[in-house]
Amino acid sequence: MQTNPIGVFDSGVGGISIWKEIISLLPKENTIYLADSKNAPYGQKSKQEIMDLSVKNTELLLKKGCKIIVVACNTATTNAISYLRKKYDVPFIGIEPAIKPAALKTKTKSIGILATKGTLNSELFATTSEKFSEDIKIFEQIGEGLVPLIETGKIHTATMENLLKKYLKSLTKHQIDYLVLGCSHYPFLIPQIKKIINKNVTIIDSGEAVARQTKAILSKNNLLNTTKNIGKHQLFSNLDATIISQFIATEKASCKIDFLDF
Ligand code: DGL
Predict the structure, then answer these.
(1) pLDDT tens, 166-188?
(2) 195: exposed, middle or buried (Cβ count in 10 Å: 0-12, 13-18, 19+)
(3) Which residue segments constitute the domains of the chain, with CATH numbers given?
(4) pTM score, two decimals?
């Protein structure tokens, strides 16, 4: 079981930002990544649809022998992870907007969250933000349209820049000093975001924390891969595998990227 892969899924290529943190922290682990790009974006779908898609991805990863599943998607985590945990025995790691670290560090007592509609409307997000909103103000913005642009490789376009300017303005007008990226696709936009917002706004995402949690849970369950070899990675897209390649650079040598109809 220890040499079995870590399964990772997202609505598309966004979770690759999380996957990169995982393989950097756990270089001996084998991984299988599913980009459900055919069904992206999840952010505009109903809770039931997100749950059904999460089950479909989980079943495939389990069929491929994954020892742990990382739900590298805020929308799927906030809408489906409690259901997945009840349904399957394997450990699940989820990703949620990093409200807590931002709330603990903010000096202006105002933080901004950029996330999908599905995440911002979820019960899990409401519970977490309620916990912190007594002491600080939390401003939310839906990043509508950003994921489809990333999924089609249109990151460096005027359309993207205009959308980002609009969404970031609606948050920064509130004197926020922390910007939480609540969607695993958004870390790919950090260079552009930095060009738009003030330097004293700190951007945070949850990638590193997810990798650390994955390591902790593997270790706790005696599932860490102790082999001397470097891990091998299979990445599948059910739409266009060439998009995945655009997000993978140094890791390419140990990766096999394919189309798979799932
Ligand atoms: N990357 C996902 C997230 O973290 C979902 C984006 C989408 O498909 O709408 O929320």
Answers:
(1) 999 999 999 999 999 999 999 99
(2) exposed
(3) 6-95+207-259 (3.40.50.1860), 99-204 (3.40.50.1860)
(4) 0.95
Amino acid (1-letter code) at residue 164: L
- Residue 66 is a catalytic residue: no
**Low-confidence spans in the chain with pLDDT less than 50:** none
Question: Distance from the CA of 119 to the center of ligand 1, in angstroms?
Answer: 8
Considering only CA atoms, which residue is closest to atom 8 of ligand 1? 41
Q: How far is CA 206 from the centre of its chain?
A: 8
What are 17-45's pLDDT values in tens digits?
A: 999 999 999 999 999 999 999 999 999 99
The count of other CB atoms within 10 Å of the CB of residue 206 is 27
Distance CA 56, CA 34 (A): 11
Yes or no: say if 113 and 141 are a contact pair by the CB < 8 Å rule: yes
Which token pair is 62? 């389990």
